[in-house]
Amino acid sequence: MNRIAIIGAGVTGLSAARALVAAGFDVTLFDKGRRAGGRMASRDGAAGSFDHGVQYLRATAADAAALGVGPLLPWPAIAPKDGAGGWIANPTFNHLAQHWAQGLALHCSHTVTAITRGPRPSGWQLRFAEHDTVFDCDTLLITIPTPQAIPLLTAAGIDCGPLAAVRYAPNWTLMWTPAAALPDGFTHHGGSGDDPLAWIAREDAKPGRSGPPRLTVQASAAWSAAQLELGADAAAEQLIALTAERLGTATASVAASAHRWRYAFAATTIGVPVVTLADGLLYASDACLGSRVTLAVEAGRQAAVQISEGDRRTGTLVQRTLS
Ligand SMILES: Cc1cc2nc3c(=O)[nH]c(=O)nc-3n(C[C@H](O)[C@H](O)[C@H](O)COP(=O)(O)OP(=O)(O)OC[C@H]3O[C@@H](n4cnc5c(N)ncnc54)[C@H](O)[C@@H]3O)c2cc1C
User: Fold this and answer.
1) CA angle (58, 59, 61) in 5-degree steps
2) 97 C-alpha to ligand 1 centroid (Å)
3) Is the C-beta atom of 216 inside 6 A of ligand 1?
4) Which residue's CA is the nearest one to ligand 1's atom 37?
5) How far is the C-alpha of 215 from the C-alpha of 51, rounded, in Å?
6) 87 within ligand 1 shell (Cβ under 6 A)
């Protein structure tokens, strides 16, 4: 049976794995994180949860239903565009990732440090930072940001092709529980242009959420790039000052922390959903079609279709047809 390994259990990896498993393939996912989701991430604090990665999905009701699933709620604060409204996951975006990961063979805390040609005909072998073991597969799908994929590929002597041209914008994200009250009725704010604050969202005002008033704040790409090497405490302090000034509130905090996403958004994209790098070696991620959950889902699905079709050509396994 064609044994497939996927590096990365973010949206792209999960989407590909779900489609491949539904088609009857033997799929194993590896992720360096403690749980699945990647940039679709949430953090629980004493004061409640923060979605410190993905904020909302823009989708029609039909597309949201097709995404699978369970824990999506409409977020009326987001104005619909072309029939597509805003959707948030309930109770957090990480729960959506866990929902998608259910039933998959997923190994977290497995950082892939090397890929080499494996003993299987045209297969691949993975090595891990945390475990003195190897994993052999027939087909390998890489779904991690290109700057993290390129060293693995280069060390294996594989031409990175269009991956080398992808550029990412970083993002500093503040998770803040202010001590002072927030303006009545405030739900979110989207900045533009030179605004150092690209996004402010009140977590406790999202559908299905509760708890003390608390904010997730994203700095702009320009501010984040300029402050990229700042310590997390210093970044939090500066973002609190900017946010308090914007909302006309005090800077005193019950709790605050900041997270740096070094590869937050693909600023340039490859333009095709999947890249074939070598025999049995594919790449797909949000760098392919764009940094949106829905586009990462699509890249993952297309990778699954390509793997399935390649498998059909070599005739090793044909089970159910991928939709
Ligand atoms: C702050 C922020 C806000 C966002 N807001 C939105 C939004 O509101 N709406 C929207 O649609 N999109 C949003 N996005 C974009 C969205 O999060 C991404 O497009 C999408 O989650 C990318 O999924 P992915 O699977 O391609 O990559 P990732 O989520 O990066 O997944 C890659 C996975 O690979 C793992 N990994 C990396 N290297 C290794 C290795 N060597 N070995 C093993 N595992 C490894 C990582 O741990 C990670 O889990 C946002 C992104 C950020 C950062």
Assistant:
1) 140
2) 11
3) no
4) 144
5) 10
6) no
pTM for this prediction: 0.96
The pLDDT profile of the chain, 323 residues, written as one tens digit per residue, is 689 999 999 999 999 999 999 999 999 999 999 999 999 999 988 889 999 999 999 999 988 888 866 679 999 999 999 999 999 999 999 999 999 999 999 999 999 999 999 887 779 999 999 999 999 999 999 999 999 999 999 999 999 999 999 999 999 999 999 999 999 999 999 988 899 999 999 999 999 999 999 999 999 999 999 999 999 999 999 999 999 999 999 999 999 999 999 999 999 999 999 999 999 999 999 999 999 999 999 999 999 999 999 876 664 433 333 43
Atom index in ligand 1 nearest the CA of residue 110 equals 43
Ligand 1 close to Cβ of residue 242 (< 6 A): no
- CA dihedral 89→68→273→139, nearest 10 degrees, is 110
User: What is the best residue among 54, 265, 288 to mutate for testing ligand 1's pocket, by most ligand atoms within 8 Å of CB?
Assistant: 54
CATH among 3.10.20.30, 3.40.120.10, 3.40.50.20, 3.50.50.60 for 3-34+108-165+270-314: 3.50.50.60
Strand-pairing partners, residue 259, are: 173
Question: At residue 149, what are phi and psi to the nearest 5 degrees?
Answer: -80, -35
168-266 belongs to CATH 3.90.660.10: yes
